[in-house]
Amino acid sequence: MELWSWTPTPDLPIVDEAVNDVLLKGGKKIRPLLVEMIATGLGVPDDQWKICARCVEWAHAATLSHDDVIDESKLRRDQPTLNAVVGNTRAVLTGDILLSRVIGELAALGNLGVLREMALAVEHLVTGEWLQLDARWNFEIDPVVLKKIAELKTGSLLAWASVAPGMLRGLETPDLEALRSFGVQSGRAFQLIDDLIDFLPTGGKPFAQDLREGLVNQAALRVFSHDRESERVLRAAFGEKFVPERFLKFSDLALKRMEIELRSEAGFHLQEASRSLQQLKPHFEKNSFRQLNEWLQQWEKRIV
Q1: Cβ distance 299 to 270 under 8 Å?
Q2: What residue spans of 140-251 are helical by DSSP H?
Q3: 79 pairs with which residues across the strands?
Q4: In 10 A of CB 247, how many CB atoms?
Q5: How far is the C-alpha of 139 from the C-alpha of 122, rounded, in Å?
Q6: What single DSSP character describes residue 79?
Q7: How many C-alpha atoms does 292 have within 13 Å on its Cβ side?
Q8: What is the DSSP secondary-structure string of 19-71?
């Protein structure tokens, strides 16, 4: 059985199909795997960390279900989104059931701190989504706001996946904060690469999907700085709240420079994450510590 496996809902088999066949199908599953790597490295009992592993993936799946309704997205990872399959209302309700299951599982775990951290993570996710909603069709979005959105939407669950095993292990506050920093810095790097992939043919969704939906991401800002003509036409398109396909043409040089800059910035955040991890080395089993550092190094080279 996989770490994130969903247990059946007796009265609503359609929910089981929605969760297993759509929301939990595919994807990189980085959050439960991060829980596993940190927890096994710290010596957290299997029956405890496995609850956290599935809960963090269920929480992530719930936010995807809600986000795709808000964004009116029909594709994710080259597959139909849940709202495209069952409609908006059922997609929202499925997300609600996932979150309620997360609360129940973590409450049964008996660690109030872990449950409280999840509540804060979900609040941060919602805050990030709200800020992103306010940013829609705002061509002059402040880069600081974009970074804040990334930290809230992406960093929050990665931070939880990092901190929860430490709380179960009973680590002191300085070590927990080092784990939190590791998760936040990893989240910043992950979002930078995710924004980059929005402009790569390997991304599993339409090219420049965020711009099509009225969102300027961190990759788009870098492209505009190297392609002023594209910046000019897209500013006009944002004023009309519609981006024609013909406006999504960028110079190869601008795209290449953007990729170099984003991978470099992501590399900086991954180095910061690794630095935070060094503080925890005395608590980690040797091979697990090495595995976690190798996992970090892979992110800078992601193309999907």
Answers
A1: yes
A2: 143-150, 156-169, 173-197, 209-212, 218-226, 228-240
A3: 76
A4: 17
A5: 27
A6: E
A7: 30
A8: IIIIITSSS--HHHHHHHHHHHHHT--HHHHHHHHHHHHHHHHHHHHHHHHHH
Class (C level, CATH) for 13-299: mainly alpha
Instruction: Print pLDDT tens along the chain (304 aa).
Output: 565 666 666 666 666 666 766 666 766 788 999 999 999 999 999 999 999 999 999 898 888 888 777 777 776 766 777 777 667 888 888 888 889 999 999 999 999 999 999 999 999 999 999 999 999 999 999 999 999 998 998 899 999 999 999 999 999 999 999 999 999 999 999 999 999 999 987 766 789 999 999 999 999 999 999 999 999 999 999 999 999 999 999 999 999 999 999 999 999 999 999 999 999 999 988 888 888 888 888 876 765 5
Return the residue matching tokens 């990729």.
259
- Cα angle for residues 160, 97, 20 (degrees, 5° grid): 85
Domain spans in the chain, listed from the N-terminal domain onward: 13-299
Buried b (16+ CB within 10 A) or exposed e, 1-26: eebbebeeeeeeeebeebbeebbbee
H helices of 241-285, where?
A: 252-278
Measured CA to CA, the distance from residue 169 to residue 175 in angstroms comes to 11
Write out the two tokens for 195: 């924004």
| DSSP-assigned beta bridge partners for residue 80 | 75
| Other CB atoms within 10 A of residue 276 CB | 20
Residues 71 and 120: their CA atoms lie apart, in Å, by 23
User: What does the chain come to in residues?
Assistant: 304
